[in-house]
Amino acid sequence: MTKVVKFGGSSLASAVQFAKVGDIIRSDESRKYVVPSAPGKRNDKDIKVTDMLYSCYAAAEAGEEYKPKLKKIKDRFDSIINGLHLKTSLEQEFRTIAENFEQKAGVEYAASRGEYLNGIIMADYLGYTFIDAAEVIVFDDKGEFDAEKTDKVLSARLRKCDRAVIPGFYGAKKDGTVHTFSRGGSDITGSIVAKAAGADLYENWTDVSGFLIADPRIIQNPEVIQVITYRELRELSYMGATVLHEDAVFPVRKAGIPINIRNTNQPEDKGTLIVENTCHHSKFTITGIAGKKGFVAVNVDKDMMNSEVGFGRKVLSAFEQSGISFEHMPSGIDTMTVFVHQEEFEGKEQQVLSAINRLAKPDTVDLEADLALVAVVGRGMRSTRGTAGRIFSALSHANVNVKMIDQGSSELNIIIGVANNDFETAIKAIYDIFVTTQL
Ligand code: ASP
After folding, report:
1. Side by side, which strands form the sheet with 335-341?
2. How far is the CA of 255 from the centre of ligand 1 (A)?
3. Which of 334, 335, 347, 410 lies 20 to 30 Å from 201, alpha-carbon distance?
4. What is the pTM assigned to this prediction?
């Protein structure tokens, strides 16, 4: 059995956290490949090492005094090394970094040093081999990740190494220039390594015990989702639930490797298992609730719309011409409504309206702003009668006016449009009816 384990920044923010990580890895010998992030925040007021590196490099590039900033970064690593009683010395590494900063090695090189140095410490601490991600994670000249080449190079390298640490977040282009993924990208590296290692499981260790059924800022102590499918996850993440970098799903999903989200501070918790398919029945009919505020509904009316071939296309092309993508489009016999992001729409509002009038010649167009969308997601809804009924009666008891309903044909989710002001109330009402009352 082989597991690839990725640890996030808060799991590696200090020597105390490192020690927890060490215990977790040593407690299961299948945890063979480790992907660390850079040290994150030790408390709310702290700064992530990656952010310190960005700011330090900006100073170096502007010809300002950057050495004190670099010293602070070195101090953070030294305090981890000392706290773990290691003999690792980063003196030479920091001399090289300073030289490269002066030679303007690039902001991505700078940002990547957090993971690189943390990887060196981690490898030393565990007695694992250190593999520089610049040698095994390949980007093309344009900076696009080269999955095929990476898989070839990385899997060949891992075959020669029983246990290794591969820093997250970066790789290199063919000419050797360091290139990073977007922020939070160590999740992606973990997934790539899991695929290349042919792992049985990709464990992603963070500071929460998995995905929560609803946003904890709205629901106090929400239940954790035990098992979720990739498709459900996509629906929830799209609607704002974040734990994992969106792009981290692709490599493992293709290879049929499940992801387990775990909590470094509570390793006894099982966390959330993300899988392609499952017969596992969720304790509740729904898997999760998420949502976003800030939508506008554009209602277009025209008598006999139903028999006018091409009407929908004309309306949508008005949005397309202004580069606006739509979120949902419920329609009736003589009306259609297009939901768009308020922020995106506001600047182009008149342009879109005149295009609709010109192209589709509707009877009326009216706008309703300040709307929110709530997504109730669950693979269990398909086989359970009355889910929609329960949602809407809960909303009506909570005095929430429903402005729009959209159920995808997959029966994986029901999307409900409400006023921004009703957003939190709606989520509470749905959570209560499906979760609180079932506990
Ligand atoms: N250290 C990088 C960041 O702060 C990448 C990561 O942690 O995944 O975004």
Report:
1. 335-341, 288-301, 364-377, 413-419, 404-407
2. 24
3. 410
4. 0.89
